[in-house]
Amino acid sequence: MTCDRDTLVRWDREHLWHPFTQMQGFLTEDLLIITRGEGSFLFDQEGNRYLDGVSSLWANLHGHRRPELDQALRSQLEQVAHSTLLGLAHPPAILLARRLAQLAPAGLTRVFFSDDGSTAVEVALKLAFQYWQNLGNREKRRFLKLENGYHGDTLGAVAVGGIPLFHEIYHPLLFDTLSAPAPYCYRCPYREDCREQCLEELEAQVATHHRELAAVILEPVMQGAAGMIPQPPGYLARVREVTRRHRVLLIADEVAVGFGRTGRMFACQHEQVSPDLMCLAKGITGGYLPLAATLASDEIYRAFLGEYQEFKTFFHGHTYTGNPLAAAVGLASLDIFEKERLIEALVPKIELLTRLLAGMAGHPHVGDIRQRGLMVGIELVRDRGSREPWPPAQRIGHRVILAARRLGAILRPLGDVIVLMPPLSISPAELEDLARITYEAIDRGTASD
Fold first, then answer.
1. Domain 70-339 grouped into CATH 3.40.30.10
2. Could you tell me which CATH class the domain 32-65+341-446 is placed in?
3. How far apart are CA 202 and CA 189, in angstroms?
4. What proportions of the chain, in percent to the nearest 5, are helix, strand and coil?
5. CA quadruple 181, 182, 186, 190: dihedral, nearest 10
6. Interstrand relation of 249-253 and 277-280 (parallel, antiparallel or unpaired)
7. What would the pLDDT profile of 62-120 be if each residue is shown by its tens digit?
8. Which of 404, 103, 82, 50 minimizes the C-alpha distance to 283?
9. Percent of the chain with pLDDT over 90
10. Residue 220 exposure: Cα atoms within 13 Å on the Cβ side
11. Does the pLDDT at position 191 exceed 70?
12. Per residue in 136-147, pLDDT tens?
């Protein structure tokens, strides 16, 4: 079905409710309708080209219309589009589970598929809870989360989230959790000792409550939705040591940071950490189809084994769990990683991006630039000296991304933090264009202040 632009705009306004979007303001803006993609670019109905500066919400790894991924999808479609994993199996799910277990941090040998990042987290929370129940440790029922953490939008994931703007309104619906401060060194009152102060409070919480704690959950190395906030070196390894010492499980939410985003296949590998549970989604299919996975250790898996009448079964599943089309594309994506030695190939791009970002640091409204691999957050401030933010009503971040759109790039802000997370396949020349557009958009978006 093809429609003219005016008709599509009208029907969008009449029917489509966009996620994470204040619709009252959105309805007054020009609607950008994307009709196709190619490599690092997206194209609208008029044929205008835009650099995909956020990988279509942090998911696209190898560019749009990647021939190997297109072919994997077509080939699997000629076999079967969907078959349940409830009591059955199919080759793509088996093969992808095997590959993920081989690539993951040591000990993560069991793979439970689901649909997206939120469901991967829901699976991890339920596995952690039931693990202790199956072992007879009935009191271990609570979870410790980090401030500013984000793990998705279903209610279990929201309960272990820590961004008040997103989560506070749902508080009456959520289960009780413990909370520890997360490093945010740019705005930390203990700037000279940020890591230690945060770790001391987390360790005290775990030591005090370990008898009732099922797990600690965190985003390793970089908190994404909080504003691209990196954890200081050694932080993750210390959390792992604390949880192991007190017999508390560690859940690593790698939905945003996995599959090369931070410069390693998985972020936990920066500090040689093996969590007990690891959540994956977004880039797992190269940004083509919804798929998620929760990886678990054999120790956790064995706790769910028993006679039928013991009911130790993990009573959880989704209709499209391990969908063959998605799993086939996921396998093809991993083939690209292997064939192109992609993690090694990222090193010069990451170094180039670091140099390009250094050129932005002197802008009068750039307060802080945070980078891990090809993940970047540029925090904009009204005054660099005092680190004073803008009032939310001025929507500086939104103004900047609209300016970037006019200059030929699609970005999305987190408040007044401008996020850059291009496809891993972006070329050096395209990376330079993205940096140039971002700087100019910041200049334009903040000029009228």
1. no
2. alpha beta
3. 17
4. 45, 20, 40
5. 40
6. parallel
7. 999 999 999 999 999 999 999 999 999 999 999 999 999 999 999 999 999 999 999 99
8. 103
9. 95
10. 35
11. no
12. 999 999 999 999
Alpha helices in 86-216 (DSSP H): 91-103, 117-134, 155-159, 164-167, 194-209
Distance CA(320)–CA(297), nearest Å, equals 23
Exposure pattern of 291-309 as b/e (b: 16+ CB <10 Å)? bbbbbbbeebeebeeeeee
CA 326 to chain centre: 18
Tokens of 265: 């296949």
* Ordered DSSP codes for 309-337: GG--S-----TTTT-HHHHHHHHHHHHHH
Length of the chain measured in residues: 449
Cα separation of 56 and 61, whole Å?
Answer: 10
429 token code pair: 């020349």
Can you say how many angstroms the Cα of residue 74 is from the centroid of all Cα atoms in its chain? 27
Do the Cβ atoms of 256 and 288 come closer than 8 Å? no
Q: Report whether 202 contacts 180 (CB < 8 A).
A: yes
Locate 374 and state its tokens: 């090809």
Pair of tokens at residue 309: 């009448």
Q: Which residues contact 239 (CB under 8 A, 6 or more apart)?
A: 199, 202, 216, 218, 250
For the chain, the structural domain boundaries read 32-65+341-446, 70-339
Per-residue pLDDT for 449 more than 60? no
Q: Torsion over CA of 28, 29, 35 and 38, rounded to 10 degrees?
A: -160
- Topology alike, domains 32-65+341-446 and 70-339: no
pTM of the model: 0.96
- How far apart are the C-alpha atoms of 161 and 121, rounded to whole Å? 11
Beta-bridge partner residues of 249: 215
Name the residue with tokens 């289960």. 175
Mind spelling out the 3-state secondary structure of 24-88? HHHCCCCCCCEEEEEECEEEECCCCEEEECCHHHHCCCCCECCHHHHHHHHHHHCCCCCCCCCCC
Q: Is 297 helix (H, G, I), strand (E, B) or coil?
A: strand
Residue 86 token pair = 């409830």
